[in-house]
Automatic annotation (TrEMBL), chain A:
Coiled coil: none
Domain of life of the native organism: Bacteria
Protein name per its UniProtKB record: 4Fe-4S ferredoxin iron-sulfur binding domain protein
4Fe-4S ferredoxin-type domain mapped to chain residues: 4-34, 64-95, 97-126
Keywords of the record: 4Fe-4S, Iron, Iron-sulfur, Metal-binding
Organism: Thiohalobacter thiocyanaticus
UniProtKB/TrEMBL annotation, chain B:
GO cellular component, one term: plasma membrane
Keywords of this entry: Membrane, Transmembrane, Transmembrane helix
This protein's record includes keyword Transmembrane helix: yes
Molecular functions (GO terms): dimethyl sulfoxide reductase activity
UniProt xrefs under Pfam families: DmsC
Originating organism: Thiohalobacter thiocyanaticus
Keyword Transmembrane helix: yes
Name of this chain's protein: DMSO reductase anchor subunit
Biological processes per GO annotation: anaerobic electron transport chain
Domain of life: Bacteria
TrEMBL record, chain C:
Domain 4Fe-4S Mo/W bis-MGD-type, first and last residues per copy: 21-77
Keywords of this entry: 4Fe-4S, Iron, Iron-sulfur, Metal-binding, Oxidoreductase
Lineage: Bacteria, Pseudomonadati, Pseudomonadota, Gammaproteobacteria, Thiohalobacterales
Family: Belongs to the prokaryotic molybdopterin-containing oxidoreductase family.
GO MF annotation, one: metal ion binding
Record-level GO cellular component terms: cell envelope
Protein's recorded name: Molybdopterin oxidoreductase family protein
InterPro entries: Asp_de-COase-like_dom_sf, MoPterin_dinucl-bd_dom, Mopterin_OxRdtase, Mopterin_OxRdtase_4Fe-4S_dom
Presence of the UniProt keyword 4Fe-4S in the record: yes
Length: 243, 329, 972
């Protein structure tokens, strides 16, 4: 069985929001659109986004880490948002595990959003239906796109390649390898939702220098000497002794 | 959570309707069983009573539509009864209303054939209204369960994920229904039923105080399973959110936060604790002893207002784990 | 599950079925990075903008801004009509009436003609984040005004000058870190550079390869967030750190001796005879008149074997780097490296720790990590090359320590010397144009300094005559200054005067104040293009806004005529007498020219173009067209034929056919030159050039042969190639200036030991102090003149990745991400003032104060407060409602930053800038903070009267809801 998902590498995410706006851009004019914005040019502008990047500070100065944290629907393998939906508008596709909302069935009761622990579903306040990340289902299967572009918009956009896309059930896929080798983890594992999306943790590169490595035989200072310049016309012992 | 008035009204109004029906029917059963003196004019008493119950249920149903983005598609909500308590509620509520209507209609028209009789002297006639009422009663409870389970089944909304949620919905709805029934009996001039309803209203109110109190105590002690650490997967004792990625709010900050101060929350709690329990009990007691319609009506009105506060608090108190992602702008 | 019975088919493409779908390539300009983009249109409306996967710069990725281009294109802030200030209305009130382009041109033609015929310098042209300085600069030169500059002076000229005067190339658009091969990456004072996407791509790749990334910055956000080590530093103190690192690296013998000897002037002998007029100059063995802008190879080493001076690079010679010697004539000399060692002797880690706030152990460890990585992780590539002295090398080697730095160093008034110190640190580690280190991008490296020169006196500014030199250039000595006989500036901004001798990018930040004060002289017409100088690119903004509207005793404006060419309803537009509505980047032809700042890669020159993907909105006209039209009407020689008739139909025609000199074969674009497009860099105009660019993703890229890709300062093959292709005039080696003779010449002038131009007396000490030929650390000028007990904190700004300067608040998507800004304060610092998180507070400098919202942050050094750049807006501007968060809660730090220093022994009205380069000292300001009083309004301060909607602004999308769906409305 296939389970498509994103794997997000917090080790390289710089919090640039490219994934946020490219997601909005692709989807607002796509089959998941529009994605309305309220007060777009006024006070308190707010709108529908499928993907948002948050920032956390971990630790106390000077040992502070700044963590940028993108989050969209995690396409849970056991998605609590699906069974609660009274209309069947929320569904999980058998073929690839993508969790979707059927906009034409949705009555906008918001119940599914209550049933999602991750806060990734957003009602479109104008269209009045529940929306969320579609894993760009309308890109990844679009045969009119070149093969290399059959990827989610956010993945294509991400300048640091912090977003990997693939089948987490295929042990050999790029995403599975990354999860396996780089400590991929799930959010709020305590609820048994089994999010398909995973996150890769920060890693630290360090340089070890042993004291004996600091100075080498070919140290240029040795060659240099601290040379005052050789003085040859001043008196020497030769001039004053006669043994 | 952000308490939505549509849902507050839906649950409280239909609770009253369910409770009122239960009161009517229990009254009828007791009367049929000759434990209580019934009302002289059953057609008027049960007919009008059912109508009142229907009005409450209808108002609740109407309120629920305000909750929907697409009410015109509301009918679709019956589709997923296998998995969704909401779907079940959506099926049960109108079914229940239909049954209440039938129950009232049977009484009102008097077309009430007796099917069989039971009892030692075979003097308890099981007529159509009794059978319809029994079925309706099952639906009344089913509706309490469905409504309660809508909330209780979301396991990570830990304030709700408890049998107490269903029990409270049942008891509070019943209590308010019985309180209304007490006033109704006074209005209709049924002194025997009046005492019966009144006594049960008090009993149910006290019982619900105990269970609601229990849920308050439970909720005050909840240890949340999810923390910021599990939410973002960073193990450190000091994590502060600095940005949500947007600054002027989103669905996630509107729907899941009540945006009220702790003091406000506390005052709402005390308001409902006073309005739902001691005041109506006192008014009921006074009203029963003096058979004053005004006091009894006041008991219901006060209790109902209290329930609005109770329901507001019920929603507001629930702390959704998604809020961990939306701590500060 | 129930995929079969869905009603809303998520794969449904029916909206596209009957629509006209087109895809076009062009170049992004949501920021100055210039990524390649692919724009999909549905029924003529922009549906999707993606990174162009075939573009060398961004290889398909895009950023938050780039992906939001749609909302720029359809922004209600767009100007669409030429506008004239209403009779009687004040500047700033934004009361305009629509006029036709004909009228606009007529007004400009008449006015500019008159000025040109009398005193061309009374016309000043200043352009902001302009990417067509090739054209605007040409126009200014042809017009004959010296008063031209773009953003460089207030942006990062310190970076350009500090590095170019040291290594012949620089970070910024001209070079960068080779993160493909580096093992250690040190990023200093960078939040988000022009090289946005490429740098992000490179950093992540670098990290994944396991390299160590160190960020030196008072703040940890953006790129620094993913650094392996964050080294918080006190602002303005990096010079001390660089010098201490240098001290430690030299002390440990971790420098690359061979590199220093061969490729820098470290071993060259400096005259140490204090009484000589040659004091501090490199000793020359023969002194022919030094013509041309290159370093003649006539300097001396002291040979270790022969124990005597010897011509540098004599085969077999092995010079001393250290020591002191006497020439035959008794002149005491020292290798310049010895002078550097003398200089850094007292710059110990302990000394620097005190200044920078970085622990001694950290400084030492950083030095060792740099030095040992450079020494022990050598890269060797099997690429043979030949140096300019004829030595054949079997391989290219590199020391994999890469640096990158930007405005955290540049935007301080000690930035030039700090950046020299950093460049020298990079050089002693041997990392210049080598794999894993710093790499040049064409047309760099250039001679130190590059050849272009400004005129040298007022005589080169003549009526009806092109300027007798470039408006901007690279002084190599005092005599190159652009001053009159009294040593007074000729330029309005006083660039290339004794106040800021190496102001190679001008001082745009002083243009308005100087024009208003009529110092050094009054001007007539100021044309501002693409700069928001009534807001975020001015210091002291509130006062500058008054100056723009100020009148003399006769009721005449002190700045008589103000033309603003902008695309949006910016704060600047409100002050215009004449508004010229520009197109957006999706509507015009543009080129990222080799004559300006191309997008070259490490491995060779690259330039690119924009080709319109949608037609101009309303009456918008590309500013390029305006320039070509004006140039033709004014009959500027480059724009007309002999007979005075118009030479170029329009801008695209100009780009194809213009040559720097008749027959030079050099034009704006370097790709597909020659009759049939068979040549590049140099060749006859090709009428099909645009088509060829269009077919090639709007970009021309040339990959140098491998052997020309490294060591280019001294790579014979490369230098000759560059000479052949007219990138450079000379194929001479570009030795790194560890010791800067150029600076020493200015110092000699200040000491009265220079034959030519001499500084006015009041500036002698200033020149003598700051034109030190060796790097040193000093406190930023403003701090030197501030009571640091009252104003103990540093205040700096950063760019957010999702906003470009002031121009993205009109963008409905981006403004949701940053709709107002906070002042970020370390909790310890804030609590000391009783300020809580989210409190309203004041930030005050000696110049003014601003009320703002506080946000606690553990990611900022406690002595520093910071905010995002230019999120705060003036009420009503940018197509926003008057009560938009940007103006109510957002704030602009510029109000507390002064464009001038307090009066001092050096005079009044000195620019708040680096004394060498005139770089604006944005990050020098010292502040204090305190809580807003009880009862104060909860709104930022200062506030300005709301700017009204302008005629021609399309407010149809300005409804309560925006439901963007390209190519028509989608049913709800
Ligand atoms: N998204 C986006 N990208 C942009 C721009 C934009 O507006 N938005 N603008 C473009 C332009 S015009 C420019 S000039 C570049 C500028 O690119 P950067 O130089 O990266 O820009 P700044 O935001 O000025 O960042 C300066 C950094 O230096 C730090 N800093 C301040 N003082 C000191 C100091 O004394 N020492 C050290 N070590 N650090 C210090 C600040 O904390 C900040 O992180 O960005 C370009 N790229
Ligand atoms: N406090 C503080 N101030 C700073 C800085 C800082 O770090 N701190 N950084 C400084 C730096 S490095 C820079 S580069 C400056 C940038 O300052 P500016 O050069 O003023 O940059 P912008 O705010 O981008 O404004 C440019 C103007 O160009 C207009 N514009 C945008 N697109 C187009 C177009 O296609 N055509 C035309 N004609 N106009 C267009 C915009 O509407 C805007 O009015 O800010 C400086 N100001
Ligand atoms: S685009 Fe990539 S780097 Fe940028 S915020 Fe999203 S995940 Fe992070
Ligand atoms: S993340 Fe939320 S919306 Fe997405 S599948 Fe899981 S529970 Fe459902
Ligand atoms: S909002 Fe729509 S998708 Fe969500 S539960 Fe209700 S009907 Fe289902
Ligand atoms: S996969 Fe598509 S829908 Fe989901 S966050 Fe990325 S761009 Fe948005
Ligand atoms: S980095 Fe700049 S040029 Fe590149 S996509 Fe982003 S906004 Fe456009
Ligand atoms: Mo800049």
């Amino acid at each position: 069985m296939t389970q498509l998902a994103l794997v997000i590498d917090l080790n390289v995410c710089v919090g640039c929001h490219a994934c946020v706006t490219s997601c909005k851009e692709w989807n607002t004019s796509g089959t998941a659109g529009y994605m309305s914005d309220e007060n777009p040019y006024g006070q308190d502008p707010t709108g529908t986004f499928f993907n948002r990047v948050q920032t956390f500070e971990v630790g106390v100065y000077p040992n502070t880490e700044t963590v940028h944290f993108p989050k969209s629907c995690l396409h849970c393998e056991d998605p609590p948002c699906v069974p609660v939906c009274p209309t069947g508008a929320s569904y999980k596709r058998d073929s690839d595990g993508i969790v979707l909302v059927d906009y034409d069935k949705c009555i906008g009761c918001k119940y599914c959003s209550w049933a999602c622990p991750y806060g990734v579903r957003e009602i479109d306040e104008q269209q009045k239906v529940m929306k969320k990340c579609t894993l760009c289902v309308d890109r990844i299967y679009d045969e009119s796109l070149p093969e290399a572009e059959r990827q989610p918009a956010c993945v294509m956009a991400c300048p640091t390649n912090a977003r990997l896309f693939g089948d987490v059930h295929d042990a050999e896929s790029e995403v599975s390898v990354a999860i396996r080798e780089r400590g991929g983890y799930q959010l709020m594992p305590e609820w048994g939702t089994k999010p398909a999306n995973h996150y890769l943790p920060r890693r630290k590169a360090r340089i070890q220098i042993h004291e004996d490595e600091l100075e080498r035989v070919d140290n240029p200072l040795k060659k240099e000497g601290i040379h005052k310049g050789r003085v040859i016309d001043e008196p020497t012992l030769d001039d004053v002794t006669s043994w | 959570m952000h308490p939505a008035f549509s849902v507050i009204f839906l649950t409280t109004l239909s609770g009253v309707g369910q409770g009122l029906f239960l009161a009517l029917y229990t009254g009828q059963v007791y009367a049929v069983a000759k434990v209580l003196p019934g009302h002289a004019d059953t057609a008027a008493f049960y007919g009008l009573g059912s109508l009142i119950a229907l009005l409450f249920l209808g108002a609740g149903l109407l309120a629920s539509f305000f909750h929907l983005g697409h009410p015109e598609r509301g009918w679709r909500a019956i589709a997923q009864w296998r998995t969704s308590w909401l779907s079940r509620e959506v099926i049960i509520l109108p079914a229940f209303m239909g049954l209440v209507f039938l129950y009232g209609l049977v009484h009102y028209t008097g077309w009430n054939p007796v099917f069989f009789e039971i009892g030692q002297q075979a003097n308890i006639a099981i007529d159509l209204s009794m059978i319809v009422g029994a079925i309706t009663t099952v639906f009344a409870f089913a509706l309490f369960i469905a409504t309660g389970m809508i909330y209780a089944c979301i396991k990570f909304l830990q304030e709700w994920a408890s049998p107490l949620t269903v029990i409270n919905y049942t008891l509070l709805g019943s209590a308010s229904g019985f309180t209304l029934a007490t006033g109704y009996a006074a209005y209709q001039g049924a002194p025997g039923l009046l005492k019966f309803y009144g006594a049960w209203a008090i009993i149910l109110t006290v019982a619900s105080l105990i269970t609601r109190g229990a849920s308050l105590i439970r909720n005050a002690r909840i240890k949340y399973k999810s923390t910021l650490q599990t939410a973002i997967g960073v193990r450190h004792s000091n994590i502060q959110q600095k940005s949500q990625g947007f600054m002027a709010g989103s669905f996630n900050t509107r729907e899941f936060f009540h945006h009220k101060t702790a003091a406000f929350m506390k005052s709402i709690k005390w308001i409902f604790l006073v309005l739902v329990f001691p005041v109506p009990v006192a008014l009921l007691a006074l009203g029963l002893s003096s058979a004053a319609l005004g006091l009894l009506a006041a008991a219901f009105v006060v209790q109902y207002l209290g329930l609005i506060a109770e329901r507001w608090f019920f929603f507001a108190q629930a702390n959704h784990p998604q809020n961990l992602y939306y701590q500060t702008i | 599950m129930r995929e079969d019975n869905v009603i809303h088919n998520p794969l449904d493409k029916s909206t596209d079925q009957n629509a006209r779908i087109e895809t076009k390539n062009t170049t992004c300009y949501m920021c100055a990075c210039r990524c390649g983009i692919r724009v999909t249109l549905r029924d003529g409306e922009v549906r999707y903008i993606q990174g162009n996967p075939d573009h060398p710069l961004n290889k398909g990725v895009i950023c938050a801004k780039g992906a939001s281009g749609i909302m720029k294109q359809y922004s209600p802030a767009r100007l669409t009509k030429p506008l004239k200030r209403k009779e009687g209305a004040d500047r700033g009130d934004a009361q305009f009436e629509e006029i036709s382009w004909d009228e606009a041109f007529a007004v400009m033609e008449e006015r500019l003609k008159k000025i040109r015929a009398t005193d061309p310098k009374k016309f000043a042209l200043f352009t902001g984040r302009d990417q067509m300085q090739a054209l605007t600069g040409l126009f200014a030169k042809q017009y004959g005004t010296p008063n031209y500059a773009a953003h460089g002076g207030f942006c990062s000229v310190n970076m350009a000058a500090g590095m170019i005067y040291t290594i012949g190339g620089s970070f910024w658009e001209f070079g960068g870190p080779d993160l493909e091969r580096a093992k250690l990456f040190v990023m200093i004072g960078t939040a988000e550079d022009h090289h946005s996407n490429p740098l992000k791509m490179a950093i992540s790749k670098f990290k994944r390869q396991g390299g160590k990334f160190i960020s030196i910055n008072p703040v940890r956000t953006g790129y620094s967030a993913i650094a392996d080590e964050w080294v918080p530093i006190k602002p303005g103190t990096d010079g001390a750190l660089m010098l201490a690192l240098t001290h430690e690296i030299i002390n440990q013998g971790l420098y690359d001796r061979e590199f220093l000897v061969q490729y820098t002037n470290a071993a060259q002998l400096v005259n140490m005879d204090e009484n000589s007029t040659e004091y501090g100059m490199l000793v020359r063995f023969e002194v022919p008149p030094e013509e041309g802008c290159f370093d003649p190879q006539n300097k001396l080493w002291w040979d270790r074997e022969l124990n005597r001076p010897i011509s540098t690079h004599t085969p077999g010679a092995d010079p001393y780097l250290l020591g002191e010697f006497k020439l035959d004539d008794g002149t005491p000399v020292k290798p310049s490296f010895q002078l550097l060692v003398d200089r850094v002797k007292d710059y110990t880690p302990e000394w620097a720790a005190e200044i920078t706030g970085i622990p001694v152990e950290t400084i030492k460890r950083l030095a060792y990590e740099m030095g040992v990585t450079a020494r022990d992780q050598k890269i060797e590539l099997p690429i043979a090359w030949t140096d300019t002295w004829g030595n054949e090398h079997e391989s290219v080697t590199g020391n994999p320590v890469a640096f990158h730095a930007m405005r955290g160093l540049a935007a301080h008034s000690n930035g030039f010397q700090t950046i020299r110190a950093m460049s020298i640190l990079m050089s002693i580690l041997g990392t210049i144009d080598r794999p894993g280190g710093f790499r040049h991008k064409a047309p760099f490296p250039r001679p130190i300094p590059p050849c272009a020169k400004t005129p040298k006196g007022p005589g080169d500014v003549k009526p009806n005559t092109p300027l007798g030199g470039m408006p901007l250039g690279w002084p190599a000595e005092p005599d190159d200054l652009f001053v009159d006989d009294q040593g007074k500036p000729v330029r309005l901004d006083k660039a290339f005067s004794w106040e800021h001798p190496l102001a190679v990018h001008g001082l745009m930040h002083n243009a308005i104040t100087n024009a208003w004060r009529q110092d050094p002289y009054p001007i007539d017409t100021l044309l501002i293009f693409m700069a928001n100088m009534a807001w975020n690119s001015s210091m002291n903004t509130a006062e500058v806004r008054k100056m723009l509207n100020d009148k003399d005793d006769n009721g005449e404006y002190k700045i008589p005529f103000l033309i603003v060419a902008d695309a949006f309803e910016s704060e600047m537009v409100a002050y215009a007498d004449l508004v010229l509505p520009d197109t957006t980047y999706l509507e015009r032809h543009d080129c990222m020219s080799m004559l300006d700042r191309p997008i070259s890669e490490f491995d060779g020159p690259v330039d690119s173009v924009r080709i319109p993907v949608v037609p101009p909105k309303g009456e918008c006209k590309p500013f390029q067209e305006v320039i070509v039209e004006l140039g033709s009407r004014l009959k500027l020689p480059a724009f007309v034929r002999e007979d005075g008739s118009r030479k170029f139909r329009d801008y695209p025609d100009f780009v194809v056919n213009y040559e720097t000199e008749p027959g030079s074969g050099i034009g704006f674009l370097s790709g597909w030159r020659g009759k049939g497009g068979e040549k590049f860099l140099k060749g006859e105009p090709n009428p099909k050039q645009w088509e060829m660019y269009e077919k090639n993703n709007c970009v021309f890229q040339y990959h140098l042969p491998k052997s020309y890709q490294y060591m280019r300062n001294w790579n014979q093959g490369y230098l000759e190639w560059a000479q052949d292709n007219r990138l450079t005039r000379y194929a001479e080696p570009i030795l790194i200036h560890i010791y800067s003779e150029v600076l020493q010449k200015f110092r000699l002038a200040a000491q009265g030991k220079w034959d030519g131009k001499q500084p006015p007396d009041h500036l002698r000490k200033r020149i003598e102090t700051y034109f030190d030929p060796l790097p040193f650390h000093y406190e930023p000028l403003e701090s030197q003149q501030t009571d640091l007990h009252t104003y103990p904190l540093n205040a700096v700004t950063q760019r957010p990745m999702a906003m470009y300067h002031s121009w993205d608040s009109q963008n409905a998507w981006l403004r949701q991400i940053h709709t107002y800004n906070y002042l970020y304060v370390n909790p310890v610092t804030a609590r000391a003032q009783g300020i809580e998180d989210e409190d309203w507070m004041w930030v005050e400098s000696q110049w003014g104060r601003v009320r703002c919202l506080c946000r606690y942050s553990e990611a900022v050094e406690p002595g520093t407060v910071w905010t995002w750049n230019a999120i705060g807006k003036a009420s009503g501007a940018w197509g926003l409602d008057a009560d938009a968060n940007e103006s109510r809660k957002g704030f602009l730090l510029n109000h507390v930053i002064s464009e001038e220093l307090p009066a001092s022994e050096y005079g009044e009205h000195l620019s708040n800038s680096d004394p060498v380069t005139g770089q604006a000292g944005w990050y020098d300001v010292r502040v204090r903070i305190y809580k807003a009083a009880e009862g104060e309004p909860e709104i930022s301060y200062p506030q300005f009267d709301p700017m009204p909607t302008l005629p021609g602004q399309d407010t149809s999308r300005k409804s309560k809801w925006l439901k963007f769906f390209a190519g028509g409305k989608k049913a709800g």
